[in-house]
Amino acid sequence: QYPTGAVMTLPRRHQLLATARAHDAWVLEDDYDSEYRFSGPPISSLEGLDTDGRVLYMGTFSKVLYPGLKLGYLVVPKPMVAAFKQAHYDLNRPGQMPVQAALAEFIEMGHFASALRRARQNYAERRQCLLEALKPVLTPGGPFISGAEQGLHLCLRLPGHIDDQALAQRIAQQGMTVRPLSAYCLQRDDLKGLVIGYGYAPLADIERCGPVLAGLVGQALKT
Known about the structure:
Layout: E1 2-3, H1 10-22, E2 27-30, H2 46-49, E3 55-60, E4 72-75, H3 81-92, H4 97-108, H5 111-134, E5 144-146, E6 153-158, H6 164-172, E7 179-180, E8 192-197, H7 203-222
Parallel strand pairs: 1-2, 2-3
Antiparallel strand pairs: 3-4, 5-6, 6-8, 7-8
């Protein structure tokens, strides 16, 4: 499985496709947040580079409209359409036909594009507010931000001596939820940081809690 927003050079992307072709394998491309790219050039999808029909491209409307929609999509190579159509029917029967029809009309009438523009602007404001709040703890050779160009979260990378799990617990005691980066690692023990989501937080809460979060991180850096 490959997320579209992953940091990967163009030659590496072509290499990944060549590997899939050599091993007669499929690549499942999860494009769940590419609509929310706030800086830098657009990232080409693997499906757009694929010339051998090796990429299965999927996305969701729950990220760009609202979570309760629970409606996604899958773009497959033409030779596989019939098989996937039958599999979908076997698993889900007709599916949510009224919801799908309503969404199709919503898109055709241009409302989806308008909603996406508003959402992108809204999340861009939250992102910028959070970045400004964290600036005091960002230092050369010290903590830095990664993953802020796209998506609805960013990663505050911390020095290796920081106990990010203990820091996340201290932050939770102040009513904020962040995830320790080390919790996402299976083998490496040198990656420390905080994964901070801002998609669910109103701008006013970020303005209020952002400096508190930065203060707690600053305290951890001094110990």
